[in-house]
Amino acid sequence: MNTTRLALVRHGRTDWNRRGLLQGSTDVPLDEVGREQARGAARLLDLLDPTGWDTVVSSPLSRAYDTGRIVAAHLCIGMSGTIPDLAERTYGDAEGSTREDAEARWPGGNFPGLEPLGAVATRGVRALDVAAAMHPGCRIVVVSHGALIRAVLDRLSPEPAPRIVNGAVSELEWSGRWVVRSVNRTAPPDPDARAGRVSSAAR
């Protein structure tokens, strides 16, 4: 059986990330820092597999989709679409609030409309299965969201996953079952940015 390699990438930063607001299903765009984090993720993917990646799929939410477009352009590969199950966990009535304000309003974190974490993990793993079935034996970049990625990693690995940072890459392989190879890797500094130059991928 051919091994399918998958890089699970959290989208870049948004203004709501910067302000510490729960986003969930709310469609919030990347900010400029987020776009640079997407370029950083692409640089890291180059380092992780210099032989190249085959395709990018993403959540349908724009912060993930636009991260995917930036990564695909840098890697000179195509995007093969979106998978609805890759969307972020829904936080219901708490979306747009800080977690502290939401928990003060709804003690115990029982926000109206909150999606159960087990359901998030189930659909997240299902989305990875769909991506692997669509592109067997390929190297796939999958762009999603922090809560979903963490739930998936917790489901697939005996080790508890850390908080997933914006632009981080986690590596998985499929050869009959999912195996987690690395978690939450982040990009090295951009040498062009340090030198005051703009890289071709950023233009």
Automatic annotation (TrEMBL):
Pfam family, one: His_Phos_1
Superkingdom of origin organism: Bacteria
Cellular compartments per GO CC: cytoplasm
Any one GO molecular function term: alpha-ribazole phosphatase activity
Region named Disordered: 184-203
Record-listed substrate binding positions: R10, H11, G12, R13, T14, D15, W16, N17, R63, E88, R89, T90, Y91
Enzyme class name: hydrolase
Active site: H11 (tele-phosphohistidine intermediate), E88 (proton donor/acceptor)
EC numbers on record: 3.1.3.73
Gene3D superfamilies associated with the record: Phosphoglycerate mutase-like
UniProt key word Translocase: no
Annotated InterPro entries: His_Pase_superF_clade-1, His_PPase_superfam, PGM_Phosphatase
Keywords: Hydrolase
Name this protein carries in UniProt: Phosphatase
